[in-house]
Design goal:
5-stranded parallel β-sheet, single chain, 42% helix, 23 helices
Length: 612
């Protein structure tokens, strides 16, 4: 091997994680004893059951790690395999075979051990890599420990609901590691301790390949019926044929699966209950994430104290509540407070924004649909009303509900029943309804844009939330609470507001209300320097030079119609500046401090249209 080739190999190994901390001199010594070996396609390098004699580094090409036809994974250029051969003499547990013409660097056990015995620099580098991996493992364990209590609580609630089910229910992660199994599943697997075990190990080869293929290729929809029977092999050797459904949930970084298995000879009636449970669990996880961003209801002003009194009065009843207030005033917080103070607090609180869902999908979202009810309905789906059974449903932006769908909502309020899309079966539910809007529903009803009978059914107990600008010093109390929250979250020390700074908050009109306040404070904490914030630069129109306006103009009182025109013109100005782009970094919504969906609703309500 030439000197140039040796240096190429040294530089290559420096980029391999296993050798990244080893100095080049030690790597050079390692490469002198290493051997480059070329393998054709489909050549087995390591065979299961044989004793290992070396480790390998992939220089070109890639290999598969497998047991007969079952593939565990693939390795590519820069990755290693066979490392265990360096520390034990046990037979190999898997086979490794090339998938294309592959060039490997072979490092024999004897040469590696000689280098470990004679070269302290080599030992130091290898140990550094192992220590780094150990520290990374410690950090993972710390994160797991911090979330242990929350996971245990969620697991307790979920297990309380599903342990009584006779279907076998298994939940596992993207690595097929089981993290939840009910009693029926443990009985099916003939094993009481399945936590963190690979679910594929309990299936025969064909069933394992089927499940792995569906998970890796992405399950269709939230529920997928397995196209073939699944053969389960218990720990004691008992084999059973089962039909199954697979559902998935999660986000871009974490995916989890729920596998429901039932013996073909013992079909159960609990399928609908289990499907609803999985959906409620997914929804609960999203709720837990969002709850970490809520600041509760902070109030000293008389108008907001009155709202809190109304919440306590209505919470213990079953009355329908209509919450009215400007965008960003905290209508959802009021709905959550009513739910938590009610006898339904142990049930779910299901939220849906009627203005954020396309008109052709909202009926299915609310009431569910049967398989084949419309194009694309490949599976049955439980609607939000069914998920909210024995609990509360919060219908935000109720004024945006399509007119042709309003009779169906009226029927739920009056009769407590509905028919899913594409179904002739009537479903009964026990749901408490809380609706919210920033629009004048009575005026809309007189204009024929909202059913008058539905308005009166919703308006049994109205609650009006005052705008933030009308709540006096509440804005300072809320601001201090948010400053403390974001300071802890971002690891910064920000001092509470001074008296002078509080005046800046009190002078500003807060058109976006509490939501605008939250976004502004989060941005301020991000850009803070050494614990200090120049609030005059953060709060819009708080610069003293911008406050030099004639006194007579600041005291002018606008009519409601004038305010509407002012808002319309302000939105038009933002749309022109953004070239009619609504969302995005430089969109009109960002300029106005509004959500894109809220701005879209306002454009529609104010009759704004783009000029041709």
């Amino acid at each position: 091997m030439t000197s140039a080739r040796l240096m190429d190999l040294v530089n290559f190994l420096k980029e391999v994680p296993f050798f990244s901390e080893v100095d080049k001199a030690s790597l050079l010594q390692l490469c002198k004893n290493g051997m480059e070996e070329q393998y054709p396609i489909n050549r087995t390098i390591i065979r299961k059951g044989e004793l290992g004699e070396a480790m390998y580094v992939i220089l070109e090409g890639h290999v598969r790690v497998h047991d007969k036809d079952h593939v565990y994974g693939k390795l590519h250029k820069g990755e290693c395999f066979g490392e265990y051969a360096l520390i034990d003499s046990k037979p190999r547990s898997v086979s490794v075979t090339t998938e294309e013409e592959t060039l490997l660097l072979k490092i024999e056990i004897t040469h590696f051990q000689e280098l470990m015995d004679s070269n302290s620099g080599f030992v130091k580098g290898i140990m550094s890599v192992l220590i780094k991996r150990h520290r990374e493992l410690d950090r993972v364990q710390e994160r797991l420990a911090s979330s242990k209590q929350e996971l245990e609580l969620t697991n307790s609630k979920m297990m309380g609901l599903i342990d009584g089910a006779m279907d076998a229910i298994l939940m596992f992660d993207a690595n097929f590691r089981i993290f939840l199994a009910n009693d029926s599943a443990k009985k099916l697997l003939e094993n009481e301790d399945v936590d963190q075990r690979n679910v594929l190990f309990f299936l025969d080869d064909e069933s394992a390949q089927l499940l792995e293929s569906i998970c890796q290729n992405g399950a269709e929809g939230s529920n997928t019926y397995l196209p073939k029977m699944v053969k389960v092999i218990g720990s004691d050797g008992k084999e059973t044929l089962n039909e199954g459904t697979l559902s998935h949930y999660g986000n871009d970084t974490d995916t989890f699966y729920t596998l429901i298995l039932r013996n073909m000879e013992d079909r159960l009636l609990a399928e609908n209950k289990i499907t609803s449970l999985e959906s409620q669990t997914e929804y609960l996880q999203e709720e837990i994430k969002e709850l970490t961003h809520d600041h509760g209801i902070i109030a000293e002003h008389g108008s907001m104290i009155k709202v809190l009194e109304l919440i306590q009065q209505v919470a213990q009843t079953q009355a329908t509540v209509l919450v009215h207030g400007e965008t960003g005033t905290g209508k959802e917080l009021v709905a959550r407070a009513i739910h938590e103070a009610s006898a339904r607090s142990n049930g779910p609180l299901i939220r849906i924004n009627c203005g954020a869902i396309p008109a052709n999908l909202i009926e299915s979202e609310l009431f569910g649909h049967e398989k084949g009810a419309f194009t694309g309905a490949t599976n049955s789906r439980k609607g939000r009303f069914l998920l909210a059974d024995k609990g509360t449903i919060f219908l935000d932006e109720i004024g945006e509900l399509p007119l042709d769908l309003q009779p169906k909502l009226l029927r739920v309020i009056q009769e407590g029943e509905f028919d899913p899309v594409g179904s002739s079966t009537t479903i009964k539910v026990n749901v408490r309804i809380i609706a919210a809007t920033h629009r004048d529903l009575l005026t809309l009803s007189k204009e024929g844009k909202f059913r008058e009978d539905l308005f009166y059914r919703l308006n049994v107990f109205p609650i009006e939330i005052p705008a933030l600008r009308d709540r006096g010093r509440d804005v300072c109390l809320i601001a201090d609470d948010m400053i403390e929250y974001f300071s802890k979250k971002m690891g910064r020390k920000i001092k509470p507001l001074t008296a002078a700074q509080q005046q800046l908050f009190l002078k500003y009109g807060w058109p976006g209300n509490v939501r605008e306040l939250q976004n502004l404070i989060e941005r301020a904490v991000i850009v803070s320097q050494n614990g200090g914030i120049d609030w005059s630069e953060i709060i819009p129109n708080s610069n003293p030079s911008q406050e030099m306006t004639p006194k007579t103009k600041s005291e002018h009182i606008y009519t409601s119609q004038e305010l509407i025109q002012l808002e319309k013109q302000n939105i038009l100005n933002a749309l022109k500046k953004s070239q009619w782009k609504i969302s995005g970094k430089n969109g009109a919504a960002a300029l106005l401090g509004l959500r894109p969906t809220t701005l879209t609703s306002k454009i529609k309500a104010l009759g704004i249209s783009r000029p041709v």
